[in-house]
Amino acid sequence: MKTLNDFNFNNKQALIRVDFNVPLNDNFEVTDATRINSAKPTIIKILEDGGSCVLMSHLGRPKGVQEEFSLQHILSKIEDALGVEVKFAGNCVGEEAIEKANALEPGEILLLENLRFHEEEKQGDKDFAEQLSKLGDIYVNDAFGTAHRAHASTTIVAQFFPEAKCFGHLLAKEIESIDKVLNNSEKPVLAVLGGAKVSSKITVIENILDKVDHLIIGGGMTYTFIKAQGGKVGDSICEDDKMELALDIMKQAEAKGVKIHIPVDVIAADDFSNDANTQICDVKQIPDGWQGLDAGPQTLQNFNDVVNSCKTILWNGPLGVFEMESFSKGTIALGESIANSTKNGAFSLVGGGDSVAAVKQFGFEDKVSYVSTGGGAMLESLEGKTLPGIAAILN
Ligand code: AMP
Q1: Atom of ligand 1 at shortest range from CA of 317
Q2: What is the CA(353)–ligand 1 centre distance, in A?
Q3: Given pLDDT bands bounded at 50, 70 and 90, which one contains residue 355?
Q4: Would you say residue 353 has pLDDT above 80?
Q5: Which of 203, 321, 378, 382 to mutate to test the pocket of ligand 1 (most atoms within 8 A of CB)?
Q6: What CA–CA distances, in Å, run from 300 to 85, 319, 330, 335, 386?
Q7: Does the pLDDT at position 357 exceed 90?
Q8: Is 353 a catalytic residue?
Q9: Ligand 1 atom having least distance to the Cα of 222
């Protein structure tokens, strides 16, 4: 696996695919600069070597050229984060980009306009990728968030750098963290899968059964498993057409020696609302008109015991509707258990969508071993797929 440390960037120009797809408010101000800050170590290493950087990214989902998706909006935020002036090219290909890239001196940075202003980016167009490739000597991919897409800048462009291509520090760390959980893990290994639906996590569950010793199933998925076993789930979210699959997963787990842990009690509510009336219910006896929206106290104690007995922990998906304060306690308690286990030496990886939001919202970010920056890319990795952006560097 080639990383930045395999290259000396002295007098070299790095063409870096970063993921600066950051959230903006109505005034086009960056509301969360995590992704910009995450790319900093890579950029700094190259500058310190005596190289220059051409940064390319997408922002949002523009249809053609749309000013509101211009990367110019985030230029000052990047300058703040890096503490260096950043030049800007108003088109990622063409004369302006070539002129500005050619004029770049060691220690300087050029940001290219939104890649997705050209539909060729998402199409993985080879000519477009070749034009991008002219802007640097060494291709660096540091965008985990788009590594599952075979786009021009994430995958195809690598063809034009047969020897001179590598992973940036961020992407290398993502790969190492996933590897540490799925392949080179210290036992016992636990996966906590929560979130809304079984259907969106099936492939993850099936792949993970070969890797873990314990599997906690929580969140909305609980009720499909409980109903499949004959429990009464009231009005809880439930996928009737996935009940057979749930039973099959339990059978597979048993055959593979994986212990599955499911909530035994829940916080049930008489409405999907923060102000609903609530009661603690046996998970198998939720009355009609009531729905389970969070894990109950006995469940949290059980989960805490499992979490603290494991040496490797993967967490994907909240234990309840954490967006509503009344149903956030289970997710917070799980975060605390994982933080505690991490303090005692476990390796913990949080990744894939809403659990990352939860970890940030409740302040556990620095108390777990690693928080992934990629949603879809993380899920596809957990499904056991080799991501095209990663394969393009390895090949
Ligand atoms: P996912 O994107 O699959 O990880 O799902 C995350 C979503 O699942 C969050 O928005 C949660 O509010 C939701 N969720 C978690 N538990 C429940 C539940 N018991 N009932 C309904 N939605 C839930």
Answers
A1: 4
A2: 11
A3: confident
A4: no
A5: 321
A6: 49, 10, 7, 11, 34
A7: no
A8: yes
A9: 19
Question: Ligand 1: does its nearest atom lie under 6 Å from the Cβ of 353?
Answer: yes
Name the residue at shortest CA distance from atom 5 of ligand 1.
Answer: 195
**Rg, C-alpha atoms of the chain:** 23
pLDDT, tens digit, 9 for 90 and up, residues 244-279? 999 999 999 999 999 999 999 999 999 999 999 999
Q: What is the mean pLDDT of residues 155-161?
A: 98
Contact (CB, 8 A) for 59 and 21: yes
CATH class of the domain defined by 4-169: alpha beta
Q: Which residue has the tokens 């786009």?
A: 151
CATH architecture, domain 185-382: 3-Layer(aba) Sandwich (3.40)
- This prediction has a pTM of 0.91
Domain boundaries of the chain, sorted by first residue: 4-169, 185-382
* 289 CB-near residues (< 8 Å, 6+ apart): 234, 235, 270
Closest-lying ligand 1 atom to the alpha carbon of residue 292: 19
Tell me what percent of the residues of the chain surpass a pLDDT of 90: 93
The CA 355 to ligand 1 mean position distance, Å, reads 10
Q: 185-382: same fold as 4-169? A: yes
